[in-house]
Amino acid sequence: MSVTAKNLDTNEYFYGHKACAGCGGSLAVRAALKVLGEHSVAVLPAGCMSAVGFNFPQLCFANNAIISMFAGTASMLTGVEAGLRRRGITDFQAVGFAGDGGTADIGIQALSGAIDRGDNILYICYDNEAYMNTGIQKSGLTPFGAKTTTTPAGANIHGNLRPKKNLFEIVAAHDIPYAATATVGYLPDFLNKVEKAKNIKGTKFIHVIAPCPTGWGIPVSDTVEAAREIADCGLWYLAEYENGEFTLNRDPKEFTSVEDYLKRQARFKHLTDEDIRVIIESRDKKWAHIRQNWKTKE
Amino acid sequence: MKQYLSGDEAFAAGIRLARPEVVSAYPITPQTIVVERLSDMVEDGSLDAEFIHVESEHVMMNANRSTALPWNIYGDQRDSLALLDTGWIQAYAENAQEALDLALMSYYIAEKKDVSTPFMVNLDGFILTHTYEEVDVPEQADADRFLPKYETENCFDFEHPKNMAFSAGPDTNYIFKYKEHAALLRAVPVIAEAEEKFALIFGRKYTGLIDTYNTEDADYILITLGTIAGLSREIADKLRAEGKKVGVLRIRYMRPFPTVEIAEAVKNAKAVAVLEKDISFGAAGTVYTNVTSALQQAGLNIPAYNFIGGLGGRNISHADITDIFEKTEHGTERVNFIGIEVQK
User: Fold this and answer.
1) Which one of A89, A254, A277, B98 has the fewest CB atoms closer than 10 angstroms to its CB?
2) Which fold would CATH assign to domain A24-296?
3) What is the ipTM of this complex?
């Protein structure tokens, strides 16, 4: 049965935290836990969600939860899963919530190790496209052109010079049982991917776009809209990897304007027409590859 | 049952007897053999545990190894002594039998509710990890009598969910730190309790935080830790035969630190030496700093000399130790590097 607004668990598992207004990361965690329920054990490394959710004595997870080492989200998931299973407990889901830096940069070794071992865990990367917790520094998932405090935009350099790492396909290359991309802009799609992952044995990975109004430079009311627009303009895609095959879940006939998407965010304000042309070219190349090689679902 | 085992193998045997439910161990020289033996035990069914093939290092037993730079895989104690402030109990084994016995006792002590503190057993890299000796391996039934099944409330619970490993701000953080400190101090009587029970079941007696040898009437006492204590006692015997009143004090536990025990054992000495495979750059050896603090806290004004040796696996010889006793009797620089003229 698919998860809908009507049958979604009305209990809250992540509340009372001090995340910024409009936080996309906390929305992703809150929504995913409504699918996974009280029998999930959440592991969070250093990052926004552990910083806002675990301040003694105000502890904000209604389910079991723990902060791991920055690099060790997946290792701790492995330990949690092995330990509980050893104690004869089978009805639980070990789930990690790590940011883009904690996943694509600092935690990638541990993630790779867990997938290699085939541990029965779900790893969710909430991607706000920079180290937002420490004040907006570039991560491996910061997109080309974005202004961060370590990739300032000036006359000589226009923000981040490197494209976003292709994390989804890096993970898929391990031949993982299930990997997916998502965005909090299309919440039902994300929730159903969490539901699907929950029922698959082995290592599961979901990469969900979760805008940060503070770091992106958008009004706090625009989080969901920006998270939707990134997929609509083709700078993100909704896809799955399963049984050795890639599937594109959503194939827009026409993309919305990349320029509009970029220009409404302060982090891209400085981009020139030439910069935007480079971004569109790279988008088109990616989609040509996807459409040629991946299955489409629609 | 008597077996011919290396330090690494003896430790693995001790782990098997402690019946861990999950093993997450990464092989790295010089402790690779421990992980290999544990894998074998899980394969042949003699150890019923989940074996996690970790992709990086988690340490409980530490095969003491030199730290970079320059790179070096041989033994010294800089790796563990640099971690004294991290809140682990630290024990240093002298031989393979003690390594096995500490493997069992470490679970007993660390799992006591009042202690609940991680435990690091240190084995001198190669000198102990790779040297074969006769080791008495206890029977599983006796090990089970010694070590109760681990029960703790400090774990996830689906009836009463827990948020663990949280943050604590300036208002409460220091209270948690005080509790960690207090738990380490509470380990002292638990170590004594563990050793008493161990002696009753296995017949082998250990002596708590320190192990003294002819210190009662000694004028000059060499304080050290790990395997080098054996050679030190041999030299002390030789000097005793020549009429010199010397003794050896082996530190078994660096944390909790035997502040009172050391001061009590050396209070009548004319001078003490501290021999360690460690240097805290720009200061002195860390064991020396801890020992001199113990003397000061006890109001003892005994000259104490630090001898740094064995770094990167370099041998410490009979002549070196004889020379240490000689220098301690006649006075020398406060911090000395064996075999190197210290720059003024």
Assistant:
1) A254
2) Rossmann fold (3.40.50)
3) 0.88
